[in-house]
Write a structure and sequence with these properties.
One of its GO terms (biological process) is DNA integration. InterPro entries: Integrase_cat-core, RNaseH-like_sf, RNaseH_sf, Transposase_IS3/IS150/IS904. GO terms for molecular function: nucleic acid binding. By secondary structure, the chain is mainly alpha-helical. The chain has one domain: Ribonuclease H-like superfamily/Ribonuclease H (Nucleotidyltransferase, domain 5), CATH 3.30.420.10. The chain is built from six helices and two strands; from the N terminus they run αβααβααα. It is globular, with a radius of gyration of 16 Å.
Length: about 140
């Protein structure tokens, strides 16, 4: 939530625990094995599954779930998924999951992170915001 950057994602034919674990593993890898970070999710069965809870524990992460019926808890992700739907998924029929996966990754890494300016970040992209903030942290240390 700090910089609106999507740090872990996965695609599969079904929403199983392995899908959530793969996304979590990617996020941990991108962030250099952070410990004690809160991982917030909705109440989906894939996030309550033993595999996912074990992955959280293995990486010393703290799981957090939204309350039942509390739509504001996941508002940031709902907004992201709406943009993904409009900018990638609804553009045309995808002949294969591989082509869809490539289009999603290209959009997230090329457009959403590097070109899409966000009001909450002071009209900066997530990459620009993170770069500026990390430089400030380095200078402060």
């Amino acid at each position: 939530m700090w910089n609106n950057k999507i740090v872990g994602y996965s695609i599969d034919s079904r929403m199983k625990a392995r899908l959530a674990v793969n996304a979590l593993e990617m996020a941990v890898g991108h962030r250099g094995n952070p410990e004690g970070v809160v991982v917030h999710s909705d109440r989906g069965s894939q996030f309550r599954a033993r595999k996912f809870r074990k992955a959280l524990k293995r990486h010393n992460l703290v799981g957090s779930m939204g309350r039942v019926g509390a739509c504001g808890d996941n508002a940031a992700m709902e907004s992201f998924f709406s943009l993904l739907q409009k900018n990638v998924l609804d553009r045309h029929p995808w002949p294969s999951r591989l082509e869809l996966r490539l289009a999603i990754v290209q959009w997230i890494e090329g457009i959403y992170h590097r070109k899409r300016r966000q009001r909450r970040l002071g009209k900066l992209t997530p990459v620009e915001f993170e770069t500026i903030m990390m430089e400030a942290v380095t200078l402060a240390a």
